[in-house]
Each structure stands twice: as structure tokens, then as C-alpha cells.
Amino acid sequence: MRAITIREGELVIEEHPDPEPGKGELLVRVRAAGLNGADMHQRRGRYPAPPGWPQDIPGMELAGEVAGLGEGTERFAVGDRVMAIVGGGAQAELAVAHERLFMPVPESLDWPEAGGLPEVFVTAQDAIITQAELRPGEHLLVHGGAGGVGTAAIQLARATGARATATVRREELRAQIAELGAEAIECEGFAEHGPFDVILELVGAGNLPENVSSLAVGGRLAVIGAGAGAKGELNLLALMGKRARIFGSTLRARSLEEKALLARRLEHEVLPLFDAGELRVPVAATFPLEQAAAAYERFEAGGKLGKIVLVVQ
Amino acid sequence: MRAITIREGELVIEEHPDPEPGKGELLVRVRAAGLNGADMHQRRGRYPAPPGWPQDIPGMELAGEVAGLGEGTERFAVGDRVMAIVGGGAQAELAVAHERLFMPVPESLDWPEAGGLPEVFVTAQDAIITQAELRPGEHLLVHGGAGGVGTAAIQLARATGARATATVRREELRAQIAELGAEAIECEGFAEHGPFDVILELVGAGNLPENVSSLAVGGRLAVIGAGAGAKGELNLLALMGKRARIFGSTLRARSLEEKALLARRLEHEVLPLFDAGELRVPVAATFPLEQAAAAYERFEAGGKLGKIVLVVQ
């Protein structure tokens, strides 16, 4: 099979042996694989794949058709449309992973949408629904609303009866964010739009003092990204006064069973909302697998709304 | 009735009109009232009592005998031994509060123990059991193990099957902390004793970076005190890598119904452990009500193990 391969920071397409499904695993013919911020880090050698996953083939999410069944599998049949978060190896013609990581693709989604769904919707659901426990009637602030996780979080908030506000750096994207259901605001002075019950931080530590001061009593600050700066000042008395909590989260380092649980939760609580027309996967651009380098470049250029997805013919 | 009264930062004893129990309230003849850090702040005008409570009579916890029943009360009879967290007014011969704030005093406790129980055990239970969800087999670190909340937290951890380690500044108190069930260590280099599943911070922000780095994956940092410094540096990437959470908490600003819920939880989960011999209230010293100024001085001098309690003859 052909696969994107990282060679000294460069993305090339190379022939690899076809992977074979082990016990409990599915072999999947990949049709689409979304790009994520972590791919950019991995390409530069700063975010290696967890043990047990392809180390040189990038890609953390995929959608495709089941092409082979390992011993003892029971959830899917050959030909089924499936999607998953994987530890690596998604940007290839074929991939294998444990069947419990896979979810059925909602009927209404095409391949690029399905390939760009798992990471951002699992991340957003886990952060704002499962961990931050966003409730109907509450007010969510998303820092970095135009990214993949941001657009997923805004939609999930709206679908669960919460109100959403999002900081969006690029003015030209604010109308599209508003269409997704959020009030799109400038980063500067965001606290004036509070108080917020939940804040989803996808940017960095620069917002930390103002995040804490703009939380409602009992508010929750979910930190999922810190690309623009990791270290900030935390005022513990302010945190106590708000009876607030701050938590950090990543998906990639979690165990197989934790990731399988995330997949079950997405199936149960979120996937039905796609066919119901309440959620969609904004796709900014698709690139054929062969043009992965251009796709990564597009991802890093920013200013996009939604996902960049590699498609495999 | 006589009551401690704050007059321009001084504690004097003054005559006040006897309080009368309103609808749903109990009149209690106070027998003991524990001192707390917040009393020290209130004396200096920095921590006023919440609305609806005596503004000039300090005291946030008490134990005593029911001396009168307001209209519609149903939980207690005259003469019952009760204790409660109140919004103010505990350091007096008589006090009134809603009956749902009161808990029965365990039989095995004398008055000073009962008067020093509610604040520290409710605070410790709420922080490490209810909010931080400390589990059997986990490892708790308490910063400031010799204080009232610290000694309560250590004992609760042990009683729920968790392991406890406590930083104790004064070397002469470490043997007593060990008797309560914790490994007593120096503040310097505490992280070498980790990783910790839960850290209870009763001191200040100086520990913040090392707290985060010494948490286990999935660890929780409960911030209940920050007297030695409020502002510290938080590394969001470290927080994400640990998938950890930090929360701040205070009791005093909570609503009546929240405080009543805390009392129900203490009754149900913690109070039975006193008569069972698994928990005790360490009392460092008692002072008669008339010597409140000396009691406050003793509290502020530090170096004590357990509670300073005012007793009313």
C-alpha cells in the first residue's frame, strides 16, 4: 500500500507492506483522513505516535470501508462505512485498528466529512460535555472558534441547549461562525461578554487571568490547546472565589479502553445528531493523499474554517 | 446575651439582645465555637459575614443545646446536642440558624470537639471526597497538614482507604501528624514523595508548579487556602499532559441550600466514623469566651496541632 511517510521532517509518499488485522482488529480501506494540529508537531518530531502504532506514517483519524476482519471481530462486516481515532497511520491507503475504536459513519455524511469528524467531535464532546458538564441554558466561550474543535464545540453547545460565544481572530470568518450558532467576537476584551459557565481554551495561556475572572461562579475552564503559549499566571484566590475548576486534557496518550469508551459515547450522544441535521462537519478543503505536503501547508497557514482532509481515491 | 463583638479590629465582650428563632430556625445555647482562619480576616475587616447573618459577632461554627424552636421546625427537640456551620454569630451565648444547617453531635464527642468539628470536616470532605473524588488506594498529599482542615483531611483519607502524605513546616508536630495516619514530610522537595492522585493545597501558590508536576495522570489539585501567596505560574501543557484538574473552593459564600446539603453529606458519610473510633477532632487548646482575644492570638501564633475552641460556661 502507499502511505504518507515522514522522512526527516518531509512528507513523502512511499510503498509499505499492507497491514494485516490481528485478533479483534479491522483492516480498513481508507477513504478520507483529517489533519490535526498534532500532525504538524509529529512531522517535526515533537509528538511521536504512542507505542504499538505506525511511527513513520502520520494520521490520527480516518474514515473508510471495512476490507478485512481479524479473528474474533463482531461489530462490523466487510464493506461497512466506519471511522475512528487512531494512534497513527491514518494517512495511508490501508489501516488497521481494534474494532472497538470504530464507529459507524452516519448515512448523511460523505467521506471527507466522515474523515474529519472523529478527532474534533470526540475532543469537543469529551471536553465540554463529559468533563466540563455543559448544561442547557449555560453559556460557553470558545477561544479559537474557527478551528476544527472550535466549530464542533459551538455546534455541540447549541445542540444541547447552551448559548455559545467564540473568539475568532480573523474578521472574515466571523459570519460563518455566526451561522454555526455562536456570537463571534474579537479576542480583545472577551471578558465583557461573560460571565461564562464553561470556557474552552484552544489558544494558549495568555487568556488565563481573564478566563478565570470572566468565569461564572462554579465555572469550568477546559484547556485543550496551548499553542500560543503554555505558561500563564493563575490567581488562586480568584479561583477559590469563583469555586471554579480548570482542567487540561489530551486524547492521544489515553489507553485503548479509554478511547473505545470515547467512541461509544460519541455513537450514543452525538452521532445521531448528524442525520437529524443538527450537526455538520465543516470541511475547508480536501487534498488527494499525494498532495499531503500541500495539505499540511494549507493547515498551517490558518485562516480556514473547519477541517483540511486528505482523500484517497 | 453576651457575645464577642468586633469593635474597630478589637475583640470585646458585649451584651446583645437575645436572638429569637424565626420560621424553621433553632435557638441554640452555644457551648463551644471553633476558631477558623476566616475569623482572623473578618476581625481585620477583610472578610465580612454574608448578608442575613450577624455582622459584628464573629464565629462560623458552633456546638450547643437546642434552647428554642421556631415555627415549623421538625428535626430536633429542646435539649438536643447539635452543631453547625453558620454565616456568623457563633461566638456568643446564644445563636439562631435554620434547622437544616444543624447536625446531631456524635455521642462520643465532648463540647470542644463538637464545636471544632463542622468547618474543618465539612471543608475536608467537600474538597477531597466530594469534589476531588479521592478513592481507596489513591495517594493524597496535604500541604499544611497540621492545621484543622489538614488533620481532618488526613483522617478522612485514611478512613476511606487512601494513603496520606502531609507537608508540615514545624518539625515538632510531625510525630503527631504521623499518629493521625500520614507520612509527615518537609515542604522542600515534596514532589519526590509523589506522584499524588489528589493534592490539598492549604498554603499558597508557591507550590503550584511542583504541585502540577507531581500529580499523577488524572490527578486533582484542590485549592482551599492561599494565605502564603495567591499568584503562581501555571503550565497549561503540563496540565494537559497530566489530564489533571485544579479547582478552588470556599464554603462561606454558598447558599443556604448548598450548606444544608453539605451538612446532610457529613451526617451520612462522616459523622458515623466518630463514634466508630475512626475519626477524632484534635483540639489544641480551649479558651473561655471571655478570653477570645487570647484565643485569636494563639490561633495566629501557629505551631498548633488541631483546633482552638472557645467554650461558653
Structure description:
Two copies of one chain form a homodimer. Chain A is α/β, with parallel strands linked by helices. The first copy, chain A, folds into two domains: 2-117 and 256-311, Medium-chain alcohol dehydrogenases, catalytic domain (Quinone Oxidoreductase, Chain A, domain 1), CATH 3.90.180.10; 120-248, Quinone Oxidoreductase, Chain A, domain 1 (Alpha-Beta Complex), CATH 3.90.180.10. Chain A is 28% helix and 30% strand. Chain A contains ten helices and 16 strands. Chain A has helices spanning 37-43, 111-115, 118-131, 148-159, 174-180, 208-214, 236-242, 256-269, 272-275, 292-301, and strands at residues 2-7, 10-15, 25-34, 61-69, 81-85, 94-98, 102-104, 139-143, 163-167, 182-185, 196-201, 215-223, 231-235, 245-248, 283-288, 307-311. In chain A, strands 3, 4, 5, 6, 7, 15 and 16 form a seven-stranded mixed beta sheet that branches. In chain A, helix 4 (148-159) links the parallel strand 8 and strand 9. The longest helix of chain A is centred in the middle third of the chain and has 14 residues, at 118-131. The two termini of chain A are 13 Å apart. The mean pLDDT of chain A is 95.
